């Protein structure tokens, strides 16, 4: 097993399930905040706690989505990073989230578009 295979095994075996777990926990925290906010109509202190949980859950989900998007932008900007396809967020099943034959989640890489040329001015 060479170093690239080791990194791939670590990425798919540890980091992808860990990412799914962290996103799931942030979503659960957000939903628990919504539940706490709804259930505590009479108690203003618990309503504030629920609103705080909602805020922190949304911030966590936003930050994770922004980091994933930034990684895709960097990977699209530098296509020579040893990968031709954009990074997809990990799924619970370990496979693509898109149905077969759909173009969801995939975009052409710069190499698929052919060489760029200057437009001709007539």
Topology, pairings included?
Elements: H1 3-39, H2 44-77
What is this entry, summarized?
58% of the residues lie in helices and 0% in strands. With 122 residues, the protein is mainly alpha-helical.
Give an overview of the whole structure.
Helix 1 (3-39) packs antiparallel against helix 2 (44-77). This protein is mostly helical and 122 residues long. It is flat and about 70 Å long. 58% of the residues lie in helices and 0% in strands. The chain has a domain at 3-77. The protein has helices spanning 3-39, 44-77.
Keyphrases for this structure?
122 residues; mainly alpha; 2 helices; 58% helix
- Overall 3D shape: flat
| Beta-strand content bin | under 5%
The chain-level structural class is mainly alpha
For the termini, the CA-CA separation is 57 Å
Task: State the helical fraction.
Answer: 55-70%
Total beta strands:
0
Tally of contiguous helical segments = 2
Q: Any low-confidence stretches, pLDDT <50, length ≥5?
A: none
Q: Largest sheet, described in full?
A: none
Radius of gyration: 21 Å
Quaternary organisation: single chain
């Amino acid at each position: 097993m060479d170093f690239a295979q080791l990194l791939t095994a670590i990425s798919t075996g540890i980091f992808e399930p860990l990412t799914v777990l962290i996103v799931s926990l942030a979503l659960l925290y957000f939903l628990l905040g919504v539940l706490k906010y709804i259930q505590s109509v009479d108690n203003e202190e618990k309503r504030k706690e629920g609103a705080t949980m909602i805020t922190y859950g949304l911030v966590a989900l936003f930050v994770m989505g922004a980091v994933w998007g930034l990684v895709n932008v960097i990977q699209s900007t530098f296509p020579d990073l040893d990968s031709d396809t954009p990074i997809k967020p990990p799924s619970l099943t370990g496979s693509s989230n898109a149905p077969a034959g759909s173009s969801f989640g995939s975009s052409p890489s710069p190499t698929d578009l052919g060489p760029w040329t200057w437009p001709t001015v007539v």
